[in-house]
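User: Could you go from structure to sequence for me? I need the amino acid at each position, not a summary. Structure tokens:
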């Protein structure tokens, strides 16, 4: 380089100094500007505008000097590129913000919204640029390395033992050379990779690969095999900490034993092991079923917990009483509150084995068990009824397969096989979501399959390694693409941070020691993968599901986070014993649940940890953690207690009993079929009945929004709530020969919106024959008001048009739309598509795998439970039902409410307060308030 270029280098090195000015100025200006929204604090505006001008100017200078630093010195790689681009974008957006601000102040733009939007966007891009800059300066794991579990992979003193061992050897074996090389690479990984990796090639030196280490950089060869004193890398690490050329910089000098190991490695020929470097802790793949310790406890889980308690000086608490246990068991196994009779019978039962008998009874309640656990599996397998991908056909449900599998208690290994090597009914899991438009390489469907299987079934984060080598595990970009290639019909090219690197992936499973998955076709590869994954030797698969079930029942996993199964368990023997026992049970999920629930550990009083840190990093098991009801459990409890919360389900396990579908007038505008317009529409269906005696004739009708029903010219019913199925006996209005059903339907609203009639008529004759008439395309309709006799069977409707079939996508399957007798069943929340109420209570969207839900209450949940229109309407409608059912008897209402909600009678104090609040003549509003005050009680909302 020409000597005169030093000035450019100097200017470039001013970049770190200048870059802090726009960060501080623009961020403070943004905060000041937000504080003036609504015309407040007008005095801040002059200072705010000055800071924006100054921040924009400094951002331009910072971007320019950063460009000089990049071009004049030894920075390269994707991370540098991205930091540069976002820095330049910040300067451009800040300049645009100034132009918009000037135009606004001069009146050419009417308000400040565009200016504030531009300023907000500037701050967002500035934040990204700053984060990337911090990654360049401190390493890409600068933030994540301090997170719990991410700083345990490297002990800087552990090389001492290896060094002592190797120094005592006259010559090193291949095994010793491998150990030495892996330890040296671990030292480089934790001290050098942040500046010398494929993303940030400072000095054109790459130290995270064999090729990079031996290629060297701008200073020449880094390693001279056999001669440490002639190796540039050794020279740099042995310089004085104050020397400008010392490596690593930033006061992170290597320890003497680390330097000695690197010297020994070079001296012995700089051998490079073929083994994969394990920078982070990694659990053994295979399970080891520990021998149960000697203990006074009977249950195997308790024997292991007894050892844990002794080691941690914890005294066994007393188990919970029967009333608490029966409620906990019901909510955990079937997701429903026990009815008062069940509670009373259980409390008074003197059988010593009654808890085991209860667990068996609940596990054998297959439908309720399935409908409760369906929510867990839907979260885990990213399965849902509606949402992203369903409208465009880019996503497929596995609900029917999943429901049937749980109902029949299919073995877990078989479930995994059918998910990984799917049939048509289970293929939605690995097919993922085909996102509309252009997506990055890490979200292509093959990579989604790898990510989903990795996270859901194996507890490993493939997502991070889909973009670059993982910062939180030993998983590499090459491994993740090898895994994704199993699901690809062509060879995949590796993309690092969405940029192709010219390297093609080789098909491989994350744990090749379990067996090969290579084959010519996808079908063969999936079969091999399904066989390899379920091997008993794959302890990761069985530890993961065991850990997830423990967390579901106990509130906290044996390993946390649940998706990082290489983290340290609080009791490794307990986890491996349970997972091994699960395998021995032929992968029986119900056996796993029972094994946990039969333990004293499960039956201990719940523990309420005040500090979230006590649950995460410094956790000590003392009993189950206090859990809130899930969104589905709370909804179902309200349905049991007050009234059914949801009218329809997205998935009906019993199938559609009736082929009826919602119909409406076919609206056409400009030769296009459009949504129905508000207003009245008229519908007719004419049919002929034989000369037979009718024993019964029952009609089911639901109309969105309202209707008037006529049979043969006689008005029979009106309705204005489509969620309520009206069941009408119409035997007397029918006759032999020609009959006509006529319906006047009204679509409310101010703009076009979905509307529909759902109707079914079942006629049973005395000889046992049946006739069923359903709403379908054979009905006719008109939008114009017809003549007065349009409801009679003699009316000529030949000019009326055929109706349009709207299906049930907008309304779901009404659970009451049946001719069967129903014994108190209601729409279970797990079968209902995403609803605003459940979303507010924490049900996830399921666009991503969700392995645990946040237990912390949110402001949105508080608002929904206090002021939410939907919830208050449910309570109001329920109050009407209760007042009629209990004949406005306040004492009876209070007693029944507590028995059903809490499993106990109210105390004298509670009884007095509640009865006093209701009064002698309780109104709907008073009872509605009583419901609300009961449902928000911790005793009701928490699983104690």
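Assistant: Here is the amino acid at each position, in order:
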């Amino acid at each position: 380089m020409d000597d005169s270029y030093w000035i450019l280098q100097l200017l470039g090195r001013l970049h770190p100094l200048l870059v802090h000015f726009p960060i501080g100025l623009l961020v403070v200006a943004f905060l000041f500007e937000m504080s003036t929204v609504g015309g407040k604090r007008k005095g801040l505006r002059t200072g705010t505008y000055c800071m924006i001008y100054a921040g924009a100017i400094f951002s331009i200078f910072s971007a320019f000097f950063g460009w000089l630093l990049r071009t004049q010195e030894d920075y390269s790689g994707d991370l540098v590129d991205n930091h540069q681009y976002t820095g330049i974008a910040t300067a451009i957006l800040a300049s645009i913000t100034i132009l918009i601000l000037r135009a606004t102040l001069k009146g050419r733009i009417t308000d400040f919204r565009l200016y504030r939007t531009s300023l907000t966007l500037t701050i967002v891009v500035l934040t990204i640029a700053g984060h990337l800059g911090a990654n360049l300066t401190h390493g890409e794991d600068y933030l994540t390395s301090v997170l719990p579990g991410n700083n345990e992979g490297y002990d800087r003193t552990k090389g001492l033992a290896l060094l002592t061992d190797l120094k005592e050897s006259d010559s090193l074996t291949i095994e010793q050379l491998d150990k030495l090389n892996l330890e040296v690479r671990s030292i480089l990984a934790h001290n050098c990779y942040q500046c010398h990796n494929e993303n940030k090639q400072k000095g054109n030196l790459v130290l995270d690969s064999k090729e990079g280490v031996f290629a060297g950089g701008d200073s020449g060869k880094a390693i001279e095999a056999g001669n440490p004193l002639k190796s540039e890398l050794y020279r740099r690490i042995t310089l004085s900490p104050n020397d400008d050329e010392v490596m690593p910089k930033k006061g992170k000098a290597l320890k003497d034993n680390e330097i000695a190991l690197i010297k020994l490695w070079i001296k012995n020929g700089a051998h490079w092991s073929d083994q994969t470097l394990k920078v982070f802790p990694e659990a053994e793949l295979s399970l080891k079923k520990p021998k149960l310790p000697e203990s006074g406890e009977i249950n195997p889980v308790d024997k292991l917990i007894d050892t844990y308690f002794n080691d941690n000086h914890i005294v066994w608490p007393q188990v919970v009483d029967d009333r608490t246990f029966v409620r906990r068991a019901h909510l955990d196994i079937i997701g429903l509150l026990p009815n008062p009779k069940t509670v009373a019978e259980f409390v008074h039962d003197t059988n010593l084995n009654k808890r085991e008998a209860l667990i068996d009874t609940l596990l054998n309640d297959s439908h309720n068990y399935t409908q409760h656990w369906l929510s867990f599996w839907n979260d885990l397998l990213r399965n849902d009824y509606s949402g992203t991908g369903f409208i465009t056909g880019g996503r497929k449900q596995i609900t029917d397969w999943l429901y049937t599998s749980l109902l029949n208690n299919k073995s877990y290994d078989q479930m995994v096989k059918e998910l990984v090597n799917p049939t048509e009914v289970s293929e939605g899991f690995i097919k993922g979501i085909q996102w509309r438009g252009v997506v990055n390489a890490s979200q292509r469907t093959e990579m989604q399959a790898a990510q989903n299987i990795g996270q859901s079934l194996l507890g490993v984060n493939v997502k991070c390694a889909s973009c670059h080598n993982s910062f939180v595990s030993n998983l590499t970009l090459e491994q993740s693409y090898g895994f994704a290639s199993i699901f690809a019909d062509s060879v995949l090219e590796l993309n690092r941070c969405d940029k192709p690197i010219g390297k093609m992936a080789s098909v491989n499973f994350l744990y090749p020691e379990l067996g090969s998955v290579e084959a010519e076709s996808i079908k063969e590869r999936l079969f091999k993968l399904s066989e390899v994954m379920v091997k008993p030797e794959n302890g990761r698969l069985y530890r993961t599901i065991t850990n997830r079930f423990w967390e579901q029942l106990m509130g906290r996993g044996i390993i946390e986070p649940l998706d990082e199964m290489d983290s340290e368990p609080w009791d490794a023997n307990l986890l491996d014993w349970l997972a091994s026992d699960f395998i021995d049970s032929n992968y029986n999920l119900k056996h796993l649940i029972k094994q946990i629930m039969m333990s004293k550990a499960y039956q201990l009083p719940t523990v309420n940890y005040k500090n979230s840190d006590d649950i995460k990093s410094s956790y000590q098991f003392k009993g189950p953690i206090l859990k809130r009801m899930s969104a589905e459990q709370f909804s179902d409890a309200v349905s049991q207690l007050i009234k059914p919360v949801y009218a329809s389900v997205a998935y009906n396990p019993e199938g559609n009993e009736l082929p009826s579908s919602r119909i409406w007038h076919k609206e056409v505008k400009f030769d296009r079929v459009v949504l129905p317009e508000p207003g009245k529409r008229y519908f007719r269906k004419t049919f002929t009945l034989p000369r037979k005696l009718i024993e019964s004739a029952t009609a089911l009708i639901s109309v969105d929004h309202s209707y008037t029903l006529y049979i043969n010219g006689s008005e029979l019913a009106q309705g204005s709530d489509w969620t309520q199925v009206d069941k009408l006996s119409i035997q007397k209005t029918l006759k032999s020969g020609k009959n006509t059903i006529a319906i006047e339907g009204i679509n409310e609203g101010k703009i076009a919106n979905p509307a529909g009639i759902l109707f079914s008529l079942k006629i049973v004759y005395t000889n046992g024959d049946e006739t069923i008439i359903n709403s379908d395309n054979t009905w006719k309709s008109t939008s114009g008001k017809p003549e007065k006799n349009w409801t009679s069977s003699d009316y000529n409707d030949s000019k009326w048009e055929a109706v349009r079939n709207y299906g049930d996508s907008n309304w779901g399957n009404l659970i009451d739309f049946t001719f069967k007798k129903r014994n108190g069943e209601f729409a279970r929340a797990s079968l209902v598509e995403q609803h605003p109420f459940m979303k507010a209570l924490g049900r996830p969207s399921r666009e991503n795998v969700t392995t645990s839900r946040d237990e912390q209450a949110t402001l949105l949940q508080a608002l929904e439970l206090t002021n939410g229109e939907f919830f208050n309407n449910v309570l109001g409608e329920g109050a009407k039902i209760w007042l009629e059912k209990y004949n406005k008897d306040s004492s009876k209402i209070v007693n029944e409410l507590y028995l059903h909600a809490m499993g106990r009678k109210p105390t004298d104090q509670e009884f007095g307060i509640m009865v006093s609040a209701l009064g002698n003549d309780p109104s709907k509003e008073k009872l509605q308030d009583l419901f609300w005050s009961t449902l928000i009680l911790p005793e009701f909302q928490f699983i104690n």
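One structural detail worth keeping in mind: The radius of gyration is 35 Å.
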